[in-house]
Amino acid sequence: MRNFKAFGHAIISLFIISLSARCHGQVELDTAPMEKAERDALFSTIQGFVGNWWNGSDLYPDPCGWTPIQGVSCDLFDGFWYVTVLNIGPIHENSLRCAKNLEFRPHLFELKHLKSLSLFKCFKSQRRHQVTIPNANWENLAGSLESLEFRSNTGLVGKIPSSFGILKKLQSLVLLENSLTGEIPPDIGNLNKLKRLVLAENNFSGHIPDIFSALGDLLILDLSRNSLSGSLPLTLGCLTSLLKLDVSNNHLEGNLLKEFAYLKNLTLLDLGNNRFSGGLTLSIQEMYSLEEMVLSKNAIGGDINTLKWENLHNLVSLDLSNMGLKGEIPESILELKRLRFLGLGDNNLTGNLSPKLSTLPCLNALYVSGNNLAGELKFSMEFYGKMGTRFGAWNNPNLCYPLEVLPTSHVPFGVKPCQQEIKLVESNTNAGNVNKTFHSTASSGLMSHDPNDFWWTFPLIMLLILNSYIGL
């Protein structure tokens, strides 16, 4: 019994000691100081973006204490708080909002432990108060900065600073939806730790620099919605870890790269709305991981049956519209069991539209309009009901639907009804056997031939009916 009590006292003592140590450690964290130089640099940086009215007077005991600044995060280094994250802009309701007249102050580059800098919707005016990204002093952050983002700043103009190439620790560079201009600096090729490079929706021009041989860790490359021209650089084939490649909505030209075959991990390829040509390259069918591929709005041309589509068995979305493709829709597409969207519109495709497409278990959008498809649509009513307006087959002059099978609510838009044969078979009369066949269009009830050619048909039919009645 005494041993049991002694053991209990020991357990309680250890608990009290550990609790005391925990509380003591928490007090140290809460009361850890921030160096005056760090504090002054932070306050000046924030004032440059939000205005001098802000003085941090409501912070206690310092910017990283019990009442931290929204958008600012700190870490302890050698017993002192240092700023590691700085997010300016209306990300949250209580985030720091940018002023109309704002500036990059040099104190920003004195935050020597800064890992992440983000400016969101700060530079708004495209005419007044335009701001450029400073080219100097980025070397001061080369030892710490891992993420740099400028998003939705329509008043942010000028070029990408070549000094960004000094930021050797940078893993994410996002310049999205700004008004930046000029060419992409080749210095970005020095950032060999980059995992994400997004330069989309700016006004960049010129060729894409051939800088990717040292960026083997890159996972996301998005250069879409700019004015880039020229051909794709061959070193894109070095990005063997790449998951997403989007260069859509530019002025790029030339053939599709054979080097695409090396991008085995790519899940998204978007080359849409450019000026590529030269036909479908066989390297595409080597990208087994592709889930979404958009090649639409390019004059690529060639035969759609060039590729073994069954190789791309992970495809969920395939957009090949407006490419000048010819040939019949390949049966191998039926092997794409995960396919949800198939866009083949505005090409030169021929042949019939196979009803087997309805057996694709996940398909919920099919567009084949603007081709030369022919014959009768043989999909079930269930298929039309499921697809609704997501089935498009208009502008195929020789394609039709069977009128007797489909109710009006399921008639595909822009597709004409198939012509029906109506046979008038009469019994023997004094005039002999009469077996006339007329073609009519079921939707209108009018003869398909010129009405002037059949002025005599009505009295003839009446005569036949009268003879048949007399014969009875």
Automatic annotation (TrEMBL):
Pfam family for this entry, one: LRR_8
Cleavable signal peptide: 1-25
GO CC terms: plasma membrane
Subcellular compartments: Cell membrane
GO biological process: response to other organism
Keywords of the record: Cell membrane, Leucine-rich repeat, Membrane, Repeat, Signal, Transmembrane, Transmembrane helix
Gene3D superfamilies named among the record's database cross-references: Ribonuclease Inhibitor
TM region(s), chain numbering: 454-471
Chief localization: membrane
Domain of life: Eukaryota
Protein name per the record: Piriformospora indica-insensitive protein 2
Organism: Phaseolus coccineus (Scarlet runner bean)
